[in-house]
């Protein structure tokens, strides 16, 4: 915020100074409110599993349990621990994304490699409960940071699976446009999202249905990570959805970061 004020003070024309100044303060207040909300949200998200965990520790300490009951309690404790680990890991990812420079535009990654990686993750998560497909229209390469791109794509595919009932389908497709841009399209036949929620999906901790998100291991941070990653790559996230029918999330990359895959060098004639 300080920079805006300085530029106002050294501007040679006096007019409009007060207006810009008050805009600056409003902006600062907004940032401060967002920061406070964020800290409150993180604390709340951490407190819930901790409360549950301490309850279980008390149970284990004070109640005579059968071996079966004891195992059950330990399984529940493990679930809460995994949830906290997921939260901390997503928070770290966000902090890293915010604190590091944009990924260079000259490291080329095979789209095919990204696809195969998410395919593995998706199969593990779905456990055969969904119809999955992973297709590429033409071999291509993408310039950017591999770990970030994988994390964005994995988040979208994980959501598609988590918000699609058993027996539904999830399709991941790479498409190169005639203007040279390219996109990953993740389409599911799941529960869908009401229109009014769509603009807010990438806000940190925003969830349409908090209990479903938490039950399926969601942190509420996935789509804010996706949005950061795609913005850092100069692209955009497009969301279309119909409640009860399914959703489509597209990661669209500018032509600058997309090129056809280099053909394998021809084998030397013998
Ligand atoms: P979460 O960890 O809760 O999934 P995200 O940031 O990844 O957090 O997503 C935010 C919210 O958007 C989710 O809580 C869910 O309500 C909704 N959502 C995301 N992806 C989908 C999808 N493929 N189908 C239906 N709802 C979705």
Please give a structural write-up.
By secondary structure, this protein is an alpha+beta fold. Helix 2 packs antiparallel against helix 3 (67-99), helix 4 packs parallel to helix 5 and helix 5 packs antiparallel against helix 7. Helix content is 51%, strand content 17%. The chain is built from seven helices and eight strands; from the N terminus they run H-H-H-E-H-E-E-H-E-E-H-H-E-E-E. Residues 1-16 have low confidence and may be disordered. The protein is globular and about 75 Å long. The strands form two sheets. Strands 2-4-5-7-6 form a five-stranded mixed β-sheet, with helices on one face. Adenosine-5'-diphosphate is lined by residues 155, 159-160, 163, 188, 190-193, 201, 206-209, 213, 218-224, 247. Member of the two-component regulatory system PhoR/PhoB involved in the phosphate regulon genes expression. PhoR may function as a membrane-associated protein kinase that phosphorylates PhoB in response to environmental signals. One of its GO terms (molecular function) is ATP binding. It is found in: Cell membrane.
């Amino acid at each position: 915020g300080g920079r805006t004020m300085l530029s106002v003070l050294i501007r040679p024309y006096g007019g409009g100074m007060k207006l810009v100044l008050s805009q600056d303060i409003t902006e600062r207040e907004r940032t401060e409110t967002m920061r406070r909300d964020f800290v409150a949200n993180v604390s709340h998200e951490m407190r819930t599993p901790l409360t549950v965990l301490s309850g279980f520790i008390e149970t284990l300490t004070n109640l005579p349990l059968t071996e079966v009951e004891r195992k059950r309690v330990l399984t529940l404790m493990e679930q809460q621990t995994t949830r906290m680990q997921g939260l901390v890991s997503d928070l770290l990812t966000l902090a890293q994304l915010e604190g590091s420079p944009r990924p260079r535009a000259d490291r080329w990654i095979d789209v095919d490699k990204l696809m195969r990686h998410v395919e593995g993750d998706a199969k593990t998560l779905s456990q055969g409960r969904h119809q999955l497909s992973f297709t590429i229209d033409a071999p291509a390469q993408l310039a950017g940071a591999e770990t970030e791109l994988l994390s964005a794509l994995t988040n979208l595919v994980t959501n598609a699976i988590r918000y699609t009932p058993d027996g539904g389908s999830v399709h991941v497709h790479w498409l190169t446009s005639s203007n040279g841009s390219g996109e990953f399209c993740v389409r599911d036949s799941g529960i869908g999202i009401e229109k009014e929620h769509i603009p807010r999906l990438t806000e940190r901790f925003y969830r349409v249905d908090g209990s479903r998100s938490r039950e399926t291991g969601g942190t509420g941070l996935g789509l804010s990570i996706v949005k950061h990653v795609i913005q850092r790559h100069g692209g955009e996230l497009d969301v279309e959805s119909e409640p009860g029918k399914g959703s489509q999330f597209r990661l669209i990359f500018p032509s600058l970061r997309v090129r056809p895959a280099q053909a394998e060098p021809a084998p030397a004639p013998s």
